[in-house]
Protein: DUF1989 domain-containing protein
Amino acid sequence: MPTDPLPEPADAAERRSAAPVVCYPPESLPAPPMALYAALRAGMTPVERLEIPARDARAFRVPAGHVLRISCIEGPQVGDLNLWNAHDLSERFYSGKTRALHGTHVGTGDRLWSSFPHLRPMATVIADSLGWYGFDADGAGVHDVIGTRCDPYTNARLGGAPFHRCCHSNLIRALVAETGLAPAAAEPLVHDVLNVFMCTGFTRDTHRYFTKASPVRPGDHLDLFAEIDLLCALSACPWGDCTGNSTDQARCHPLGAEIFAPAAAVLDGGALGGWTPPTPAPYDRSHGL
Structure:
């Protein structure tokens, strides 16, 4: 951070001592039905399995009421996840608002919220085998909503060579393959991600974003309950487990994506008992005009 040549004001200490205020108290959000989700997981049935190739991405669909499990299947590997409303791609995952509501990293019971004007849960984290990690001595946690995604534009600005196997481009190719959109139409739909299995934080001195080796190991997984019909795209990041800062030297592995149908025991007349897809935010969009 640049050094400010101006002197501190006489009341600098008093200004700094102001108490922090949580902007969006989580207690005001409706509580997710975790008991229902637990019953659903107890007997859920796999209906589709995919392998996301190392340094590439795949797109797939998850019906509302189903569970998406993202798994480490061979070796430590992080992934970048995009979510869209399967019927309206303008409604997409909003990492910034998810961060404001739940914090820098998400875990069991947290929800992945959609963009304006919808602002509703798209998915809920219902199980996380890395939930034990918490925040370490460096202030790092797992599954962040603070990073964006590796991309060819930043790489070029930093003096790098053309970088096509980055998560941004991987997600574009996956979306194009699934939807038939032209690349130019698909690119604006790709958005800031959930960094699955990624271990990240901010340095204590300069508050810069950092990564460190992910604690993920084969068998670890993150389970997401689809609150609406989802189109998903997942990229197996070219940084592997983010041990270093070079994709050339990174050891990369594929990721697993499994889709599960709910347990028959929690179905009531063909629907999940006690659950309905969330509706968009109840705002009339008049904006004071």
